[in-house]
């Protein structure tokens, strides 16, 4: 099936020039958003500390295709559910800069990241966790094809109290993510 969707963002590896952009993006609650503010971080973190690509996960910089401006970043890290050699999955997370939110970039970035991980790794499962009050993220994950699996009680410490989280997953065989190519076309696939 061909999509009329025009690609509006893409990923590139994290580079030194991105560090100052992301340091500013995580500098305050108004920049991170209410569900990602965990307090101030040490200044001057390097590429490795910020999550450059590695065997246990990584971070990609999200840029708008129209002008290459940095709109955020997507990252993933390994989660273990049993013997680490065979029972692991990727957990994904996303940060879209405050001025870019509400414009569909988050949905497109998660679609692209999910497709990237299914295409380039052996993972069977990709999971995402979001706050029980973050309705926008829950709706986005549902649109992409993630299945809600349940509530993780008091799982995240943020702003002086424990917060419940919801866990979602997408399995390789039930993936209905629309892979998007550089020319803006995609097709429904199973990975």
UniProtKB/TrEMBL annotation:
Give the organism, scientific name.
Answer: Amycolatopsis eburnea
Q: Name one GO cellular component term.
A: cytoplasm
What name appears for this protein in its UniProt entry? N-acetyltransferase
Segments forming domain N-acetyltransferase = 9-173
GO terms assigned for molecular function: protein N-terminal-serine acetyltransferase activity; protein-N-terminal-alanine acetyltransferase activity
Alphabetical list of SUPFAM superfamilies matching this protein: Acyl-CoA N-acyltransferases (Nat) (SSF55729)
Q: Which UniProt keywords apply?
A: Transferase
């Amino acid at each position: 099936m061909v999509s009329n969707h025009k690609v509006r963002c893409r990923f590139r590896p994290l580079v030194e020039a991105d560090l100052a952009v992301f340091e500013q993006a995580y500098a305050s609650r108004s920049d991170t958003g209410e569900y990602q503010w965990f307090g101030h971080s040490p200044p001057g973190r390097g590429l490795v500390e910020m999550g450059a690509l590695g065997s246990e996960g990584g971070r990609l910089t999200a840029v708008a295709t129209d002008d290459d401006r940095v709109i955020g970043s997507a990252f993933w890290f390994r989660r273990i559910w049993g013997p680490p050699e065979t029972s692991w999955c990727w957990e994904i997370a996303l940060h879209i800069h405050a001025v870019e939110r509400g414009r569909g970039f988050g949905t497109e970035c998660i679609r692209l990241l999910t497709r990237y991980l299914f295409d380039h790794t052996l993972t069977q499962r990709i999971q995402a966790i979001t706050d029980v009050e973050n309705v926008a993220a829950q709706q986005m994950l549902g649109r992409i094809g993630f299945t809600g699996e349940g509530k993780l009680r008091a799982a995240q410490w943020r702003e002086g109290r424990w917060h419940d989280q919801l866990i979602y997953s997408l399995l390789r065989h039930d993936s209905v993510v629309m892979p998007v190519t550089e020319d803006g076309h995609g097709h429904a696939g199973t990975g």
